[in-house]
Specification:
Layout lengths: L1 E6 L9 H9 L3 H9 L3 E3 L2 E2 L11 E6 L17 E5 L3 E6 L16 H7 L24 E7 L2 H12 L4 E9 L6 E5 L2 E3 L7 E3 L7 E9 L3 E8 L6 H8 L14 H7 L6 E9 L6 E5 L4 H12 L3
Parallel strand pairs: 7-14
Antiparallel strand pairs: 1-4, 2-3, 2-4, 5-6, 6-7, 8-13, 8-14, 9-12, 10-11, 12-13, 14-15
Length: 309
């Protein structure tokens, strides 16, 4: 364990402990929150909670764990992962369900970076060792189109594009019931759930999160929505539609009806990254890619359509 003593800079005055320390130390807010919960963050000698506010000039004492050895990427073929486009700078794939984007502690399943390595594709060496070339992510339980950088230039350009929100991310989601209005914007901050650490929620003081949606097809018990993300928070679409009382069909974590999920044969949320558009890092030309629905989502959609006539 390593203890660090440092004053709170003026620029962090009034910020939450988790946000301020994440910025100051280059850690994720989740890691800082865990340190605070363990009593490893002191402000002027007193334990600080993750949502406490920092005061300029206060004395911070943070006890950091020893750095872990890097997680190894295992080259392993990923069943069902399709390469939609491949050139010197980028590779665009359609990610199947049950596949994480990169290795992480506790994950023993297949990964996108491992699948690309097994396919003999060289990707950018920028980023942490276990997620080199990764410029954005999809949940393990979410399918669809994503891009991975192959060149260092592409990594830099695409990272900036995602940060500056110039990437066009289109999702399809089947949600329970019928959202009213049928076209709208959900602007609600998201943070970790106050009681359940494994999920997220709309929380006052959370990170700004904006989701645009339009219902494109209505069924008896559900609706197919075209969703555009302005921000890219973890579980954003799932959290926002759950907050509207229209959770993604099959998403039991966020309040979906288990009876309907079983009827449709779903064991995960009906959510698919349908399209991805961005300026190609090589020459700036606009490119767009589309991923077809996987079998489980297509079957569930067919059943909803048949039962609506």
């Amino acid at each position: 364990m390593t203890a660090r003593l440092l004053p709170v800079p003026d620029g962090l005055d009034g910020m939450r402990v988790d946000a301020g320390l994440a910025k100051l130390l280059g850690l994720s807010r989740t890691v800082v929150a865990e340190l605070a919960e363990a009593g490893d963050v002191l402000v002027d000698g007193r334990p600080a909670g993750k949502s406490d506010r920092l005061t300029a000039g206060g004395l911070l004492e943070v006890t950091l764990p020893e750095p872990e050895s890097p997680i190894q990427v295992i080259a392993e073929a990923v069943e069902g992962m399709k390469i939609l486009h491949d050139d010197d700078d980028i590779v665009v794939i359609s990610k199947p369900v049950g596949v994480a984007v990169h290795p992480s502690p506790g994950w023993t399943g297949p990964t996108v970076v491992g699948g690309l390595a097994a396919a003999g594709l060289r990707i950018s060496t920028s980023g942490a060792a276990e997620r080199q070339g990764v410029v954005h992510r999809l949940d393990a339980g979410t399918t669809g189109v994503m891009v991975v950088a192959k060149s260092e230039h592409a990594y830099t350009v695409l990272k900036r594009a995602f940060k500056e929100r110039t990437v066009d991310k289109g999702y399809h989601a089947v949600v329970q019931g019928h959202p009213d209005p049928t076209r709208g914007t959900i602007d609600a901050p998201i943070d970790r759930h106050p009681r359940h650490d494994y999920k997220f929620a709309v929380v006052a003081g959370g990170r700004p999160s904006v989701t645009h949606y339009e219902v494109v097809e209505a069924f008896r018990a559900a609706s197919l929505a075209h969703v555009k993300l302005e921000t890219g928070r973890t579980h954003q679409i799932r959290v926002h539609f759950s907050a509207l009382r229209h959770p993604c069909v099959g998403d039991l974590t966020y309040g979906a009806d288990p009876v309907l999920a079983r009827h449709l044969g779903l064991t995960r949320q009906w959510l698919h990254a349908r399209t991805l558009g961005f300026a190609h890092p090589a020459d700036g030309r606009w490119v767009e890619f589309e991923a077809e629905y996987p079998d489980d989502l297509a079957r569930a959609l067919d059943i909803l359509r048949e039962e609506s006539y």
